[in-house]
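Protocol step 4 of 6: structure prediction from sequence.
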Amino acid sequence: MANWELQCVSAIVKGAGGTPSDLFEAAQLRGVRFSVFGSIEARALWSSLEAHYTRPGNFGHIPSEESVQEMFPTLALPQPLENFQDLCKKVIDGWSQRESKKYLDDYLADMGNDTPAAITALYEKLGELQEQSRSSSDVHYREVAMRETLADLT
């Protein structure tokens, strides 16, 4: 089975389809964040990339593939098999499926106690999940203004 999460993060590090920093930003705009990763390896790798990207002295940079290999010597970065947009979608879809399963398990456990309340809770949780997993190509003024301000300051 392909590990889409590791492939997505690997695509960022390897700069598959753009510069690593641009790909990291694009992934974030698509909703990829630490909490959507299910595997420990992908979480650790994303966390280190995010820490490097946001550190004050080096804001906006992603470590090289060699640096990542030094940080994670036992982790082999896979070659991305899909395009970057599809990898981001697969990561978000995997997270949505895991969350949906948790919500359904909670529903089944609560159904015997108070069925109407269990149905209402499931409906609300799935609605929230739909909102959280929605990726948009809309441009948000705040994000554009932040980038332009940072560019001006630089």
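Step 5 (inspection) to follow. The two ends are 44 Å apart (CA to CA).
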